[in-house]
Amino acid sequence: MSNSLAAAHVRVLGGPTALIEIGGLRILTDPTFDEPGDYEVGPGMVLSKTQPAAAQVNELGRLDAVLLSHDEHPDNLDNAGRDLLPNVPVVYTTRSGAQRLGGNALGLAPWDVHELPRPDGGRLTVTGVPARHGPEGCEPVTGDVIGFVLSAPDLPSVYVSGDNASLELVQEIADRLGPVDTAVIFAGAVRTPLLDQALLTLDSEQAATAAAMLGARRIVPVHIDSWTHFAEGPDDVLAAFTAAGLAERLSLG
Q1: Three-state SS for 133?
Q2: By the 8 A CB rule, do 237 and 252 touch?
Q3: Mean pLDDT over all residues of the chain?
Q4: Which of 198, 196, 204 has its CA nearest to residue 232?
Q5: How many other CB atoms are there within 10 angstroms of residue 1's CB atom?
Q6: Closest among 193, 225, 224, 181 to 206, alpha carbons compared
Q7: Which of 10, 62, 13 has the alpha carbon at shortest distance from 33?
Q8: What is the dihedral of CA 21, 224, 146, 52, to 10 degrees?
Q9: At 80, is the pLDDT very low, low, confident or very high (cuts 50, 70, 90)?
Q10: 88-130, pLDDT tens digit by residue?
């Protein structure tokens, strides 16, 4: 395999935050770099971060873009992450999020496409793909969310799920854009009493099902550590992928 076709490198930094290097570009997902602490997100609701990120903002080096699944929850965009955004050339996010953030934020609806210039003169296609942060009709409670597919004729494709809880939407993405080489899947089995304990993100078994749907050669789970409301962690993911016969495709850490 030539260098141009080499798989994307994904470094997991904690929570939903990962650094993706592909086609000479360095792209960050949902930036969360605050120190551990608590965030009030509603009456009687507190999200607690338990671990710092594996690297701090000043250690990351050049960033070419941020993929921000949504801007409304501090476990996907915290204070330090928000401070980072103006220093990045472009922030891809939801259309409503782009209106709130302004500046360099570019809103994508599902299936919208934007081309990101690469250092080698080529281009990386960033496609917005559907995501739903809970059961059908959850948007008034959880807000809008977007996922992403990164692709180019000479590069392996990368799917970034964002906070998605819908396998039906994963199947739609697989039908239109699959198979993908690498799937960065937000898991953690998050639930909330506001929606009768319905899942807001995939659980570990569903993450394995999503990986199979996408035909992913490699799966990088994120959103499974560093926060107390993530109900399932790396051990649960490994057990589910082992049961599904997909453990050899899993890239943990």
Answers
A1: coil
A2: yes
A3: 93
A4: 204
A5: 7
A6: 224
A7: 13
A8: -70
A9: very high
A10: 999 999 999 999 999 999 999 999 999 999 999 999 999 999 9
Q: Give the tokens for residue 99.
A: 């209106």
DSSP 8-class letter at 103: T
Could you give the CA distance from residue 13 to residue 142 in angstroms, rounded to a whole number?
Answer: 24
**Which residue carries 């059961």 as its tokens?**
135
Q: From residue 93, how far is each of 153, 160, 196 by CA, in Å?
A: 24, 12, 28
- Give percent of the chain above pLDDT 90: 85
- For tokens 């999503």, the residue is 210
The structural domains of the chain, ordered by start, are 3-249 (3.60.15.10)
Within 8 A by CB and 6+ apart from 135, the residues are 165, 195, 198, 199
Structure tokens at 4: 């141009």
The residue type found at 235 is: D
Strands in the chain per DSSP E: 9-14, 17-22, 25-29, 37-42, 45-49, 65-67, 91-93, 105-107, 113-117, 123-130, 146-152, 155-160, 182-186, 218-222
Asked if pLDDT for residue 6 goes beyond 90, the answer is: no
**Count, residues in the chain:** 253
Q: What tokens appear for 112 in the block?
A: 């919208």
pLDDT at position 195 is: 78
**Long-range pairs, 36-39, Cβ under 8 A, ≥24:** 39/74, 39/75, 39/78
Amino acid identity for residue 102 in this structure: G
